[in-house]
Amino acid sequence: MVMNSSWLQPILLLLLLSGSLVRIEGLSVGINYGQIANNLPTPTRVAFLLQSLNINKVKLYDADPNVLQAFSNSNVEFIVSAGDILNLSDPSKAQAWVKQHIQPFIPQTKISCIIVGNEILAPGADGQLMSSLLPAMQNMHSALVSLGLDKQINVSTSHSLTILANSFPPSSGAFRPDLAEYIQPILSFHSQVNSPFLINAYPYFAYKGSPNDVSLEYVLLQPNQGSVDPNTNLSYDNMLFAQIDAVYSAMKALGHSDIEVKISETGWPSKGDTDEPGASPENAGIYNGNLLQRIEEKQGTPMKPSVPIDIFVFALFNENMKPGPTSERNYGLFYPDGKPVYNIGLMRASLPELRISASTINVMNAFAYLICFMSFLILA
Q1: 8-state DSSP, 225
Q2: Catalytic residue check, 265
Q3: Dihedral sign (CA 217, 220, 223, 225)
Q4: Could you please report the per-residue DSSP string of 6-64?
Q5: 291-309 burial, b if ≥16 CB within 10 A, otherwise e?
Q6: How large a percentage of the chain has pLDDT more than 90?
């Protein structure tokens, strides 16, 4: 068996730091685990990596049984996705989907949410799909109720920010009028079943579209002058929090202040084409690193300061088969061989100062190598 040493580097360090002298606290951050690639490690090795990093929330773009099985009896909580909306608008097919893709893995694998569709409500989108979205969500929830799983698994769908007609200032956030007939009943569904409203928010897109008009520091969550909402006098020092509050305002305008907004995707590309300004490892590291810091500090937005932001970073790996511009294939925190694309401080959380002798370090290194070697023999 040939072992790739690049996988050992991050794991060795984490094993070394996870002994009795040091405790690494896991950050409450999720990760999007996309698989549009032909060079990714096996789900078993991914499970080993994520647990080593203390990442305990994962979002899938399907309900891959190999992944769910690989994370059996782990502390990782999953959001899974169901994409066949037209079929799921049939109650019997929604019931069959849950029985096939969810029920066999409960409770060994923790599943907390099913996302029905991704960015279905959009300008010019398929009208039949948009009309079928809510019935599919309702059917999935009913299937969970009938199987006694609705208390542990909720149902939602994820939206792009194109559903907003206005996002600035945040207090003036409003949904597109042409989507109101779909969004209003979906909000009522969320309110009834107590599930979150999920958005995919990428400040990078705003910078890419207008690099001369949008402050790079503002979108990267770096120190800057920020902006003040003239209607509320609330100060915003980054675009992501302003986007979240714009969605809260849009929901409030439709009569809902009882639904939590969560970020199902956000990230920054480490590489792009010549017409994709700002796509670099440095900026990606700054954006995601600052985001992790905000999460670690349990920050809320100016409108919801007591509600810590709940975010899933996009994405775990670079995906070499994704279509579109170069940036689409370069959102990963890791290369497929397990090497970090850049350092965002996943191992920085609250480490005490170490005073360890050289002989102790040698012993710990030897022990870590032994554990890694044995682990990879088992996983091979």
Answers
A1: -
A2: yes
A3: positive
A4: HHHHHHHHHHHHTSTT--PPPPS-EEEE----SSPPPHHHHHHHHHHTT--EEEESS--
A5: bbbbbbeeebbbbeeebbb
A6: 80
CA neighbor of 48 nearest in space, from 22, 16, 11, 9: 11
Sign of CA dihedral 35, 41, 45, 49: negative
Partners of 227 in the β-ladder: 236
- Closest to 46 (Cα-Cα) out of 26, 66, 62: 66
Pairs from 237-240 (Cβ < 8 Å, separation ≥ 24): 238/203, 239/203, 239/206, 239/214, 240/201, 240/203, 240/266, 240/291
Predicted model pTM: 0.85
Told to judge if 119 belongs to the known catalytic residues of this protein, a careful annotator would answer yes
d(CA 289, CA 340): 13
For residue 329, the SS3 value is helix
The residues facing 317 across adjacent strands are 334
Please state, in angstroms and rounded to a whole number, the distance separating the CA atoms of residues 28 and 77. 11
Residue 237 CB contacts under 8 Å (≥ 6 apart), including other chains? 218, 221, 223, 224, 226
Residue 331 in tokens:
């959102």
Note whether 70 and 121 are within 8 A (CB): no
Q: N- to C-terminal Cα distance for the chain?
A: 8
Q: Report the pLDDT averaged over residues 278-294.
A: 96
Phi-psi region of 96 (alpha: psi -120 to 50; beta: other; left: phi over 0): alpha
- Measured distance CA(373)–CA(190) in Å, rounded: 47
Q: Which of 25, 77, 119, 296 is catalytic?
A: 119
Burial letters 126-165, b for 16+ CB under 10 A, else e: eeebbebbbbbbbbbbbbbeeeebbeebbbbbbbbbbbbe
pLDDT in tens, 111-168: 999 999 999 998 889 999 999 999 999 999 999 999 999 999 999 999 999 999 999 9
The two three-digit tokens of residue 177, written as one number = 């009028």
Distance of CA 230 to the CA centre of its chain: 31
How does pLDDT run across 327-340, given as a tens digit for each residue? 999 999 999 998 99
